[in-house]
Amino acid sequence: MKNKPIILVTNDDGIIAPGIRTLVHTMNSLGDVYVVAPNKPKSGIGHAITMDTVVYCDSVKIDNGIQKEWECSGTPVDCVKLAINHILPRKPDICVSGINHGSNSSINILYSGTISAVIEAGIEGIPSIGFSLLDFDWNADFEPSKKYVWKIVKKILHNPMEKGILSLNVNIPKLRKEEIRGIKICRQAEAKWKESFDQRYNPKGRAYYWLVGDFVNFDKESDTDEWALKNGYVSVVPIKFDFTDYSTLNILKSWNFILFIFFLKSSLF
Amino acid sequence: MKNKPIILVTNDDGIIAPGIRTLVHTMNSLGDVYVVAPNKPKSGIGHAITMDTVVYCDSVKIDNGIQKEWECSGTPVDCVKLAINHILPRKPDICVSGINHGSNSSINILYSGTISAVIEAGIEGIPSIGFSLLDFDWNADFEPSKKYVWKIVKKILHNPMEKGILSLNVNIPKLRKEEIRGIKICRQAEAKWKESFDQRYNPKGRAYYWLVGDFVNFDKESDTDEWALKNGYVSVVPIKFDFTDYSTLNILKSWNFILFIFFLKSSLF
Protein backbone atom coordinates (compact mmCIF):
# COMPACT_ATOMS: atom_id res chain seq x y z
CA MET A 1 0.00 0.00 0.00
CA LYS A 2 1.81 3.12 -1.21
CA ASN A 3 -0.54 5.84 -0.02
CA LYS A 4 -1.72 6.09 3.54
CA PRO A 5 -4.72 3.82 4.03
CA ILE A 6 -8.11 5.33 4.66
CA ILE A 7 -9.70 3.91 7.80
CA LEU A 8 -13.42 4.27 8.48
CA VAL A 9 -14.33 4.05 12.16
CA THR A 10 -17.83 3.58 13.55
CA ASN A 11 -19.64 1.93 16.47
CA ASP A 12 -23.06 1.55 18.09
CA ASP A 13 -22.37 3.04 21.53
CA GLY A 14 -22.25 6.56 20.11
CA ILE A 15 -19.41 8.80 19.00
CA ILE A 16 -18.35 9.94 22.47
CA ALA A 17 -18.12 6.44 23.98
CA PRO A 18 -14.69 5.62 25.49
CA GLY A 19 -14.54 2.45 23.34
CA ILE A 20 -14.63 4.30 20.02
CA ARG A 21 -12.26 6.96 21.38
CA THR A 22 -9.72 4.21 22.10
CA LEU A 23 -10.24 2.76 18.60
CA VAL A 24 -9.85 6.17 16.92
CA HIS A 25 -6.62 6.99 18.71
CA THR A 26 -5.20 3.54 18.01
CA MET A 27 -6.08 3.85 14.31
CA ASN A 28 -4.50 7.31 13.95
CA SER A 29 -1.07 5.64 13.78
CA LEU A 30 -2.14 3.37 10.91
CA GLY A 31 -3.81 5.68 8.39
CA ASP A 32 -6.10 8.61 7.67
CA VAL A 33 -8.99 8.13 10.03
CA TYR A 34 -12.58 9.12 9.21
CA VAL A 35 -15.07 8.64 12.02
CA VAL A 36 -18.76 8.46 11.07
CA ALA A 37 -20.67 7.27 14.11
CA PRO A 38 -24.09 7.61 15.76
CA ASN A 39 -24.70 10.75 17.81
CA LYS A 40 -26.18 8.63 20.62
CA PRO A 41 -26.14 5.00 21.79
CA LYS A 42 -27.71 2.54 19.33
CA SER A 43 -26.99 -0.77 21.03
CA GLY A 44 -29.23 -3.64 19.93
CA ILE A 45 -30.18 -1.84 16.73
CA GLY A 46 -28.97 -4.73 14.54
CA HIS A 47 -28.93 -4.13 10.80
CA ALA A 48 -31.59 -1.41 10.93
CA ILE A 49 -31.52 1.35 8.32
CA THR A 50 -33.38 4.66 8.26
CA MET A 51 -35.92 4.68 5.46
CA ASP A 52 -38.99 6.54 6.65
CA THR A 53 -37.31 9.62 8.00
CA VAL A 54 -34.28 11.78 7.28
CA VAL A 55 -30.75 11.42 8.58
CA TYR A 56 -28.59 14.27 9.86
CA CYS A 57 -24.83 13.97 9.63
CA ASP A 58 -22.67 16.82 10.89
CA SER A 59 -18.93 17.39 11.03
CA VAL A 60 -17.78 17.53 14.66
CA LYS A 61 -14.64 17.86 16.73
CA ILE A 62 -14.68 15.58 19.77
CA ASP A 63 -11.06 15.81 20.92
CA ASN A 64 -7.66 17.02 19.76
CA GLY A 65 -6.89 13.99 17.60
CA ILE A 66 -5.94 14.27 13.92
CA GLN A 67 -8.95 12.25 12.73
CA LYS A 68 -11.91 13.76 10.87
CA GLU A 69 -15.30 13.12 12.46
CA TRP A 70 -19.01 13.21 11.66
CA GLU A 71 -21.85 12.43 14.05
CA CYS A 72 -24.94 10.91 12.51
CA SER A 73 -28.55 10.71 13.71
CA GLY A 74 -28.98 7.30 12.04
CA THR A 75 -27.96 3.73 12.77
CA PRO A 76 -24.45 2.21 12.48
CA VAL A 77 -25.43 0.78 9.06
CA ASP A 78 -26.61 4.25 7.97
CA CYS A 79 -23.20 5.57 9.08
CA VAL A 80 -21.35 3.09 6.86
CA LYS A 81 -23.61 3.81 3.88
CA LEU A 82 -23.26 7.58 4.33
CA ALA A 83 -19.50 7.38 4.83
CA ILE A 84 -18.91 5.30 1.71
CA ASN A 85 -21.38 7.04 -0.58
CA HIS A 86 -21.13 10.62 0.56
CA ILE A 87 -18.42 11.57 3.04
CA LEU A 88 -15.16 9.73 2.30
CA PRO A 89 -12.88 10.90 -0.55
CA ARG A 90 -12.72 7.28 -1.78
CA LYS A 91 -13.67 3.77 -0.71
CA PRO A 92 -11.90 3.08 2.59
CA ASP A 93 -9.18 0.42 2.83
CA ILE A 94 -10.71 -0.91 6.00
CA CYS A 95 -13.70 -0.31 8.27
CA VAL A 96 -13.37 -0.89 12.00
CA SER A 97 -16.25 -0.80 14.44
CA GLY A 98 -16.25 -0.56 18.23
CA ILE A 99 -14.60 -1.05 20.58
CA ASN A 100 -17.98 -2.16 21.84
CA HIS A 101 -18.74 -1.91 25.55
CA GLY A 102 -19.82 -5.53 26.04
CA SER A 103 -19.60 -8.86 24.24
CA ASN A 104 -20.65 -9.45 20.66
CA SER A 105 -19.70 -13.12 20.65
CA SER A 106 -21.86 -15.92 19.30
CA ILE A 107 -25.51 -15.06 18.55
CA ASN A 108 -25.04 -11.46 19.76
CA ILE A 109 -23.75 -10.76 16.28
CA LEU A 110 -27.40 -10.62 15.13
CA TYR A 111 -28.50 -7.91 17.56
CA SER A 112 -25.33 -5.84 17.49
CA GLY A 113 -25.18 -2.55 15.61
CA THR A 114 -21.38 -2.74 15.92
CA ILE A 115 -21.23 -5.97 13.94
CA SER A 116 -23.98 -4.93 11.50
CA ALA A 117 -21.75 -2.01 10.48
CA VAL A 118 -18.95 -4.53 9.85
CA ILE A 119 -21.25 -6.71 7.74
CA GLU A 120 -22.46 -3.69 5.76
CA ALA A 121 -18.86 -2.74 4.93
CA GLY A 122 -18.22 -6.37 3.95
CA ILE A 123 -21.16 -6.24 1.52
CA GLU A 124 -19.42 -3.28 -0.10
CA GLY A 125 -16.25 -5.33 -0.49
CA ILE A 126 -14.39 -3.48 2.26
CA PRO A 127 -12.31 -5.48 4.76
CA SER A 128 -13.98 -4.87 8.10
CA ILE A 129 -13.46 -5.76 11.72
CA GLY A 130 -15.71 -5.42 14.75
CA PHE A 131 -14.03 -5.17 18.14
CA SER A 132 -15.80 -5.75 21.44
CA LEU A 133 -14.56 -5.87 25.01
CA LEU A 134 -16.39 -8.14 27.45
CA ASP A 135 -17.11 -5.27 29.79
CA PHE A 136 -20.37 -3.30 29.62
CA ASP A 137 -19.07 -0.58 31.91
CA TRP A 138 -18.84 2.91 30.39
CA ASN A 139 -15.50 3.26 32.20
CA ALA A 140 -14.20 -0.15 31.10
CA ASP A 141 -10.42 -0.48 30.84
CA PHE A 142 -9.65 -0.53 27.10
CA GLU A 143 -5.87 -0.42 27.62
CA PRO A 144 -5.27 -4.20 27.25
CA SER A 145 -7.37 -4.21 24.03
CA LYS A 146 -5.20 -1.69 22.21
CA LYS A 147 -2.36 -4.07 21.41
CA TYR A 148 -4.68 -6.64 19.81
CA VAL A 149 -6.74 -4.08 17.93
CA TRP A 150 -3.61 -2.51 16.49
CA LYS A 151 -2.03 -5.82 15.50
CA ILE A 152 -5.12 -7.33 13.91
CA VAL A 153 -5.86 -4.18 11.90
CA LYS A 154 -2.22 -3.92 10.79
CA LYS A 155 -2.23 -7.57 9.76
CA ILE A 156 -5.41 -7.17 7.69
CA LEU A 157 -4.20 -3.92 6.09
CA HIS A 158 -0.97 -5.59 4.96
CA ASN A 159 -2.58 -8.77 3.66
CA PRO A 160 -4.87 -8.02 0.75
CA MET A 161 -7.85 -10.19 1.52
CA GLU A 162 -8.51 -13.29 -0.46
CA LYS A 163 -12.01 -13.31 -1.93
CA GLY A 164 -14.36 -14.16 0.87
CA ILE A 165 -12.27 -13.15 3.89
CA LEU A 166 -13.78 -9.79 4.45
CA SER A 167 -15.24 -9.41 7.87
CA LEU A 168 -14.03 -10.43 11.31
CA ASN A 169 -15.81 -10.44 14.64
CA VAL A 170 -13.19 -9.91 17.36
CA ASN A 171 -14.02 -10.19 21.05
CA ILE A 172 -11.58 -9.42 23.83
CA PRO A 173 -11.84 -10.93 27.33
CA LYS A 174 -12.04 -8.67 30.35
CA LEU A 175 -8.58 -9.46 31.64
CA ARG A 176 -5.38 -7.66 32.50
CA LYS A 177 -2.83 -7.34 29.68
CA GLU A 178 -0.58 -10.10 31.06
CA GLU A 179 -3.52 -12.47 31.54
CA ILE A 180 -4.61 -12.53 27.87
CA ARG A 181 -3.23 -15.74 26.33
CA GLY A 182 -3.27 -14.70 22.66
CA ILE A 183 -5.60 -14.92 19.66
CA LYS A 184 -7.81 -17.86 18.63
CA ILE A 185 -9.51 -18.21 15.23
CA CYS A 186 -12.97 -19.65 16.03
CA ARG A 187 -16.45 -20.40 14.85
CA GLN A 188 -19.57 -18.78 16.33
CA ALA A 189 -20.77 -20.82 19.34
CA GLU A 190 -24.30 -22.20 19.38
CA ALA A 191 -25.80 -20.09 22.12
CA LYS A 192 -28.85 -17.94 22.72
CA TRP A 193 -30.50 -15.60 25.18
CA LYS A 194 -33.03 -17.02 27.59
CA GLU A 195 -35.36 -14.12 28.06
CA SER A 196 -38.14 -13.03 30.28
CA PHE A 197 -40.15 -9.85 30.46
CA ASP A 198 -40.36 -7.80 33.61
CA GLN A 199 -43.96 -6.56 33.65
CA ARG A 200 -44.65 -3.23 35.35
CA TYR A 201 -47.41 -0.63 35.28
CA ASN A 202 -47.08 3.02 34.33
CA PRO A 203 -48.63 5.74 36.54
CA LYS A 204 -51.88 5.44 34.56
CA GLY A 205 -52.06 1.68 35.16
CA ARG A 206 -51.08 0.51 31.69
CA ALA A 207 -48.79 -2.55 31.59
CA TYR A 208 -45.34 -2.25 30.04
CA TYR A 209 -42.36 -4.57 29.77
CA TRP A 210 -38.60 -4.54 30.20
CA LEU A 211 -36.67 -7.17 28.30
CA VAL A 212 -34.33 -9.10 30.60
CA GLY A 213 -32.29 -12.16 29.77
CA ASP A 214 -29.48 -14.58 30.49
CA PHE A 215 -27.00 -15.75 27.90
CA VAL A 216 -26.93 -19.55 27.60
CA ASN A 217 -24.13 -21.40 25.77
CA PHE A 218 -25.17 -24.90 24.64
CA ASP A 219 -21.95 -25.46 22.75
CA LYS A 220 -19.33 -27.38 24.68
CA GLU A 221 -16.74 -27.69 21.89
CA SER A 222 -13.35 -26.01 22.14
CA ASP A 223 -13.35 -24.41 18.66
CA THR A 224 -15.89 -21.68 19.49
CA ASP A 225 -15.60 -18.02 20.39
CA GLU A 226 -17.24 -18.69 23.75
CA TRP A 227 -14.58 -21.29 24.62
CA ALA A 228 -11.75 -18.99 23.54
CA LEU A 229 -13.03 -16.07 25.61
CA LYS A 230 -13.67 -18.23 28.68
CA ASN A 231 -10.13 -19.53 28.41
CA GLY A 232 -8.47 -16.14 28.19
CA TYR A 233 -8.05 -15.74 24.43
CA VAL A 234 -9.07 -12.98 22.05
CA SER A 235 -11.63 -14.64 19.71
CA VAL A 236 -11.59 -13.97 15.96
CA VAL A 237 -14.57 -15.27 13.95
CA PRO A 238 -14.61 -14.74 10.16
CA ILE A 239 -18.17 -13.79 9.20
CA LYS A 240 -20.20 -13.75 6.02
CA PHE A 241 -23.57 -12.48 4.90
CA ASP A 242 -25.03 -15.41 2.99
CA PHE A 243 -27.85 -16.76 5.16
CA THR A 244 -28.56 -19.76 2.92
CA ASP A 245 -28.56 -23.03 4.84
CA TYR A 246 -26.76 -25.10 2.20
CA SER A 247 -26.87 -28.21 4.39
CA THR A 248 -30.64 -28.40 4.03
CA LEU A 249 -31.12 -27.26 0.42
CA ASN A 250 -31.22 -30.83 -0.91
CA ILE A 251 -33.56 -32.10 1.81
CA LEU A 252 -36.02 -29.36 0.91
CA LYS A 253 -35.66 -30.06 -2.80
CA SER A 254 -36.59 -33.70 -2.15
CA TRP A 255 -39.86 -32.62 -0.56
CA ASN A 256 -41.36 -32.16 -4.00
CA PHE A 257 -43.70 -29.27 -3.48
CA ILE A 258 -45.20 -29.81 -6.94
CA LEU A 259 -46.46 -33.30 -6.08
CA PHE A 260 -47.73 -31.94 -2.78
CA ILE A 261 -49.66 -29.26 -4.59
CA PHE A 262 -51.20 -31.93 -6.85
CA PHE A 263 -52.48 -33.86 -3.80
CA LEU A 264 -53.98 -30.72 -2.39
CA LYS A 265 -55.89 -29.81 -5.52
CA SER A 266 -59.19 -30.36 -3.83
CA SER A 267 -58.21 -28.21 -0.89
CA LEU A 268 -59.07 -24.70 0.24
CA PHE A 269 -57.88 -22.84 -2.84
CA MET B 1 -50.05 -33.40 15.47
CA LYS B 2 -53.04 -34.33 17.62
CA ASN B 3 -53.99 -31.00 19.07
CA LYS B 4 -54.61 -27.95 16.96
CA PRO B 5 -51.27 -26.29 16.21
CA ILE B 6 -50.49 -22.91 17.70
CA ILE B 7 -49.48 -20.44 15.01
CA LEU B 8 -47.67 -17.21 15.88
CA VAL B 9 -48.12 -14.47 13.27
CA THR B 10 -46.07 -11.28 13.06
CA ASN B 11 -44.69 -8.84 10.48
CA ASP B 12 -42.82 -5.55 10.11
CA ASP B 13 -45.39 -3.50 8.20
CA GLY B 14 -47.57 -3.16 11.30
CA ILE B 15 -50.59 -5.06 12.57
CA ILE B 16 -53.16 -3.38 10.30
CA ALA B 17 -51.23 -3.92 7.04
CA PRO B 18 -53.23 -5.81 4.37
CA GLY B 19 -50.34 -8.31 4.07
CA ILE B 20 -50.58 -9.55 7.66
CA ARG B 21 -54.40 -9.51 7.47
CA THR B 22 -54.19 -11.93 4.52
CA LEU B 23 -51.73 -14.11 6.43
CA VAL B 24 -53.89 -14.16 9.57
CA HIS B 25 -57.03 -15.16 7.72
CA THR B 26 -55.17 -17.84 5.77
CA MET B 27 -53.70 -19.27 8.99
CA ASN B 28 -57.06 -19.37 10.80
CA SER B 29 -57.91 -22.56 8.87
CA LEU B 30 -54.71 -24.28 10.01
CA GLY B 31 -54.56 -23.72 13.76
CA ASP B 32 -55.05 -21.44 16.74
CA VAL B 33 -53.67 -18.12 15.60
CA TYR B 34 -51.94 -15.65 17.92
CA VAL B 35 -50.94 -12.36 16.32
CA VAL B 36 -48.26 -10.31 18.08
CA ALA B 37 -47.17 -7.57 15.70
CA PRO B 38 -45.83 -4.00 15.74
CA ASN B 39 -48.38 -1.22 16.25
CA LYS B 40 -46.82 0.74 13.37
CA PRO B 41 -44.59 0.09 10.35
CA LYS B 42 -41.06 -1.08 11.22
CA SER B 43 -39.64 -1.79 7.78
CA GLY B 44 -35.85 -1.84 7.60
CA ILE B 45 -35.57 -2.38 11.35
CA GLY B 46 -33.53 -5.58 10.92
CA HIS B 47 -32.83 -7.61 14.04
CA ALA B 48 -33.20 -4.63 16.37
CA ILE B 49 -34.41 -5.22 19.92
CA THR B 50 -35.66 -2.72 22.49
CA MET B 51 -33.23 -2.52 25.38
CA ASP B 52 -33.06 1.10 26.55
CA THR B 53 -36.77 1.76 26.84
CA VAL B 54 -39.95 -0.08 27.70
CA VAL B 55 -42.27 -2.01 25.41
CA TYR B 56 -46.05 -1.79 25.46
CA CYS B 57 -48.07 -4.77 24.28
CA ASP B 58 -51.85 -4.57 24.34
CA SER B 59 -54.61 -6.98 23.41
CA VAL B 60 -56.56 -5.64 20.41
CA LYS B 61 -59.37 -6.57 18.09
CA ILE B 62 -58.64 -5.60 14.49
CA ASP B 63 -61.39 -7.45 12.62
CA ASN B 64 -63.98 -10.16 13.15
CA GLY B 65 -61.57 -13.10 12.73
CA ILE B 66 -61.22 -15.83 15.36
CA GLN B 67 -57.53 -15.08 16.00
CA LYS B 68 -56.23 -13.50 19.20
CA GLU B 69 -54.20 -10.32 18.70
CA TRP B 70 -51.72 -8.08 20.51
CA GLU B 71 -50.17 -4.89 19.16
CA CYS B 72 -46.69 -4.09 20.38
CA SER B 73 -44.69 -0.85 20.49
CA GLY B 74 -41.45 -2.74 19.86
CA THR B 75 -39.73 -4.33 16.90
CA PRO B 76 -40.68 -7.59 15.12
CA VAL B 77 -37.97 -9.40 17.13
CA ASP B 78 -39.41 -7.94 20.36
CA CYS B 79 -42.81 -9.29 19.24
CA VAL B 80 -41.46 -12.82 18.86
CA LYS B 81 -39.66 -12.68 22.22
CA LEU B 82 -42.74 -11.30 24.00
CA ALA B 83 -45.05 -13.81 22.33
CA ILE B 84 -42.93 -16.83 23.26
CA ASN B 85 -41.96 -15.76 26.76
CA HIS B 86 -45.07 -13.98 27.95
CA ILE B 87 -48.19 -14.17 25.80
CA LEU B 88 -48.64 -17.61 24.25
CA PRO B 89 -49.98 -20.52 26.34
CA ARG B 90 -47.06 -22.67 25.08
CA LYS B 91 -44.24 -22.61 22.52
CA PRO B 92 -45.88 -22.20 19.09
CA ASP B 93 -45.71 -24.99 16.51
CA ILE B 94 -44.80 -22.50 13.84
CA CYS B 95 -44.12 -18.78 13.42
CA VAL B 96 -45.08 -17.03 10.19
CA SER B 97 -44.14 -13.47 9.34
CA GLY B 98 -45.50 -11.16 6.64
CA ILE B 99 -46.92 -11.15 4.10
CA ASN B 100 -44.42 -8.36 3.55
CA HIS B 101 -45.30 -5.53 1.19
CA GLY B 102 -42.18 -5.76 -0.99
CA SER B 103 -39.34 -8.19 -1.68
CA ASN B 104 -37.13 -9.73 0.98
CA SER B 105 -35.05 -11.73 -1.47
CA SER B 106 -31.28 -11.98 -1.44
CA ILE B 107 -29.43 -9.47 0.77
CA ASN B 108 -32.71 -7.80 1.84
CA ILE B 109 -32.90 -10.53 4.45
CA LEU B 110 -30.42 -8.51 6.53
CA TYR B 111 -32.46 -5.31 6.65
CA SER B 112 -35.88 -6.91 6.94
CA GLY B 113 -37.78 -6.93 10.21
CA THR B 114 -40.07 -9.57 8.69
CA ILE B 115 -37.19 -12.01 8.23
CA SER B 116 -35.49 -11.07 11.50
CA ALA B 117 -38.66 -12.25 13.28
CA VAL B 118 -38.34 -15.55 11.41
CA ILE B 119 -34.70 -15.91 12.42
CA GLU B 120 -35.52 -15.11 16.05
CA ALA B 121 -38.15 -17.87 16.11
CA GLY B 122 -35.60 -20.20 14.50
CA ILE B 123 -33.13 -19.45 17.30
CA GLU B 124 -35.84 -20.60 19.72
CA GLY B 125 -36.15 -23.89 17.81
CA ILE B 126 -39.51 -22.95 16.27
CA PRO B 127 -40.12 -23.70 12.57
CA SER B 128 -40.60 -20.31 10.96
CA ILE B 129 -41.41 -18.87 7.56
CA GLY B 130 -41.22 -15.34 6.21
CA PHE B 131 -43.51 -14.48 3.30
CA SER B 132 -43.03 -11.47 1.05
CA LEU B 133 -44.83 -10.31 -2.08
CA LEU B 134 -42.82 -8.37 -4.66
CA ASP B 135 -45.19 -5.42 -4.50
CA PHE B 136 -44.57 -2.46 -2.19
CA ASP B 137 -48.07 -1.07 -2.70
CA TRP B 138 -50.27 -0.89 0.42
CA ASN B 139 -53.13 -2.12 -1.77
CA ALA B 140 -51.10 -4.93 -3.36
CA ASP B 141 -53.10 -7.95 -4.54
CA PHE B 142 -52.36 -10.74 -2.02
CA GLU B 143 -54.92 -13.11 -3.54
CA PRO B 144 -52.44 -15.14 -5.67
CA SER B 145 -50.13 -15.50 -2.62
CA LYS B 146 -52.72 -17.24 -0.45
CA LYS B 147 -52.49 -20.64 -2.13
CA TYR B 148 -48.70 -20.81 -1.74
CA VAL B 149 -48.70 -19.51 1.82
CA TRP B 150 -51.29 -22.07 2.85
CA LYS B 151 -49.57 -24.99 1.14
CA ILE B 152 -46.07 -24.21 2.40
CA VAL B 153 -47.25 -23.72 6.00
CA LYS B 154 -49.33 -26.92 5.85
CA LYS B 155 -46.35 -28.83 4.46
CA ILE B 156 -44.04 -27.59 7.24
CA LEU B 157 -46.64 -28.25 9.96
CA HIS B 158 -47.05 -31.86 8.83
CA ASN B 159 -43.33 -32.56 8.45
CA PRO B 160 -41.56 -32.30 11.76
CA MET B 161 -38.40 -30.50 10.82
CA GLU B 162 -35.13 -32.29 10.72
CA LYS B 163 -32.51 -30.62 12.88
CA GLY B 164 -31.33 -27.58 11.04
CA ILE B 165 -34.27 -26.99 8.71
CA LEU B 166 -35.99 -24.37 10.72
CA SER B 167 -36.46 -21.17 8.85
CA LEU B 168 -37.55 -20.39 5.32
CA ASN B 169 -37.49 -17.13 3.37
CA VAL B 170 -40.34 -17.25 0.84
CA ASN B 171 -40.79 -14.57 -1.82
CA ILE B 172 -43.72 -14.45 -4.21
CA PRO B 173 -43.54 -12.76 -7.61
CA LYS B 174 -46.01 -10.00 -8.48
CA LEU B 175 -47.97 -12.04 -11.00
CA ARG B 176 -51.51 -13.20 -11.60
CA LYS B 177 -52.43 -16.59 -10.10
CA GLU B 178 -52.24 -18.40 -13.46
CA GLU B 179 -48.87 -16.83 -14.28
CA ILE B 180 -47.00 -18.23 -11.25
CA ARG B 181 -45.06 -21.29 -12.41
CA GLY B 182 -44.62 -23.05 -9.05
CA ILE B 183 -42.10 -23.20 -6.21
CA LYS B 184 -38.28 -23.26 -6.46
CA ILE B 185 -35.90 -24.14 -3.62
CA CYS B 186 -32.99 -21.68 -3.97
CA ARG B 187 -29.95 -20.13 -2.43
CA GLN B 188 -29.67 -16.42 -1.61
CA ALA B 189 -28.42 -14.51 -4.69
CA GLU B 190 -25.25 -12.42 -4.43
CA ALA B 191 -26.73 -8.97 -4.75
CA LYS B 192 -26.61 -5.63 -2.97
CA TRP B 193 -28.06 -2.16 -2.93
CA LYS B 194 -26.21 0.59 -4.75
CA GLU B 195 -27.03 3.61 -2.67
CA SER B 196 -26.81 7.32 -2.81
CA PHE B 197 -27.95 10.04 -0.45
CA ASP B 198 -30.29 12.78 -1.53
CA GLN B 199 -28.97 15.86 0.30
CA ARG B 200 -31.51 18.56 1.20
CA TYR B 201 -31.68 21.45 3.66
CA ASN B 202 -34.22 21.97 6.41
CA PRO B 203 -35.92 25.37 6.86
CA LYS B 204 -33.09 26.43 9.18
CA GLY B 205 -30.44 25.57 6.57
CA ARG B 206 -29.10 22.38 8.16
CA ALA B 207 -28.28 19.58 5.71
CA TYR B 208 -30.14 16.28 5.95
CA TYR B 209 -30.21 13.13 3.87
CA TRP B 210 -32.66 10.68 2.37
CA LEU B 211 -31.35 7.21 1.64
CA VAL B 212 -32.10 6.17 -1.95
CA GLY B 213 -30.87 3.10 -3.77
CA ASP B 214 -31.08 0.61 -6.61
CA PHE B 215 -30.94 -3.13 -6.14
CA VAL B 216 -28.14 -4.74 -8.17
CA ASN B 217 -27.94 -8.50 -8.77
CA PHE B 218 -24.41 -9.65 -9.65
CA ASP B 219 -25.39 -13.31 -9.57
CA LYS B 220 -26.23 -14.75 -12.98
CA GLU B 221 -26.70 -18.41 -11.89
CA SER B 222 -30.08 -20.11 -12.15
CA ASP B 223 -30.16 -21.58 -8.61
CA THR B 224 -30.82 -18.28 -6.84
CA ASP B 225 -33.95 -16.64 -5.43
CA GLU B 226 -33.52 -13.71 -7.83
CA TRP B 227 -33.53 -16.06 -10.83
CA ALA B 228 -36.58 -17.93 -9.56
CA LEU B 229 -38.57 -14.73 -9.00
CA LYS B 230 -37.57 -13.24 -12.34
CA ASN B 231 -38.72 -16.44 -14.02
CA GLY B 232 -42.13 -16.54 -12.39
CA TYR B 233 -41.49 -18.91 -9.48
CA VAL B 234 -42.12 -18.58 -5.76
CA SER B 235 -38.61 -18.70 -4.21
CA VAL B 236 -37.94 -20.69 -1.02
CA VAL B 237 -34.53 -20.19 0.66
CA PRO B 238 -33.70 -22.19 3.81
CA ILE B 239 -31.91 -19.83 6.20
CA LYS B 240 -29.68 -20.20 9.23
CA PHE B 241 -28.19 -17.96 11.84
CA ASP B 242 -24.58 -19.08 12.02
CA PHE B 243 -22.56 -16.24 10.49
CA THR B 244 -19.24 -18.11 10.62
CA ASP B 245 -17.47 -18.14 7.29
CA TYR B 246 -16.24 -21.75 7.47
CA SER B 247 -14.60 -21.48 4.05
CA THR B 248 -12.03 -19.04 5.40
CA LEU B 249 -11.44 -20.41 8.91
CA ASN B 250 -8.37 -22.41 7.82
CA ILE B 251 -6.87 -19.56 5.79
CA LEU B 252 -7.07 -17.35 8.84
CA LYS B 253 -5.61 -20.03 11.09
CA SER B 254 -2.61 -20.26 8.76
CA TRP B 255 -1.89 -16.58 9.24
CA ASN B 256 -0.22 -17.34 12.55
CA PHE B 257 -1.04 -14.30 14.59
CA ILE B 258 1.33 -15.46 17.34
CA LEU B 259 4.37 -15.29 15.03
CA PHE B 260 3.14 -11.95 13.78
CA ILE B 261 2.94 -10.62 17.31
CA PHE B 262 6.54 -11.81 17.90
CA PHE B 263 7.78 -9.81 14.90
CA LEU B 264 6.00 -6.74 16.16
CA LYS B 265 7.51 -6.89 19.63
CA SER B 266 9.37 -3.68 19.10
CA SER B 267 6.27 -1.93 17.86
CA LEU B 268 3.93 0.63 19.35
CA PHE B 269 2.81 -1.38 22.38
- Principal-axis shape of chain A equals globular
Assembly state of the chains shown: homodimer
Q: Helix tally of chain A?
A: 8
Q: How is the largest sheet of chain A built, in terms of strand order?
A: 3-4-2-1-5-6-7-11-8
Number of strands of chain A: 11
Report the CATH C-level class of chain A: Alpha Beta
Helix content percent band of chain A: 25-40%
Strand percentage of chain A, roughly?
A: 25-35%
What does the largest sheet of chain A look like?
9 strands, mixed
String of helices and strands of chain A: EHEEEHEHHEHEEEEHEHH
SSE-based structural type of chain A? alpha/beta
Task: Domain count of chain A, please report it.
Answer: 1
* CATH architectural type of chain A: 3-Layer(aba) Sandwich
> What would you give as the CATH superfamily of chain A?
Survival protein SurE-like phosphatase/nucleotidase
The stretches of 5 or more residues of chain A where confidence is low (pLDDT under 50) are 259-269
Give descriptors for this structure.
homodimer; 269 residues; alpha/beta; nine-stranded mixed sheet; two-stranded antiparallel ribbon; 11 strands; 28% strand; globular
Question: Could you walk me through the main structural features you see in this protein, from its secondary elements to its overall organization?
Answer:
Two copies of one chain form a homodimer. Chain A is of the alpha/beta class. The first copy, chain A, has a single domain (6-190, 220-263), classed as Survival protein SurE-like phosphatase/nucleotidase (Stationary-phase Survival Protein Sure Homolog, Chain: A). Helix content of chain A is 28%, strand content 28%. Chain A has eight helices and eleven strands. Chain A has a nine-stranded mixed beta sheet with strand order 3-4-2-1-5-6-7-11-8, with helices on both faces. In chain A, strands 9-10 form a two-stranded antiparallel sheet. The longest helix of chain A has 16 residues, at 143-158. The radius of gyration of chain A is 21 Å and the shape is globular. In chain A, 51% of the residues are buried.
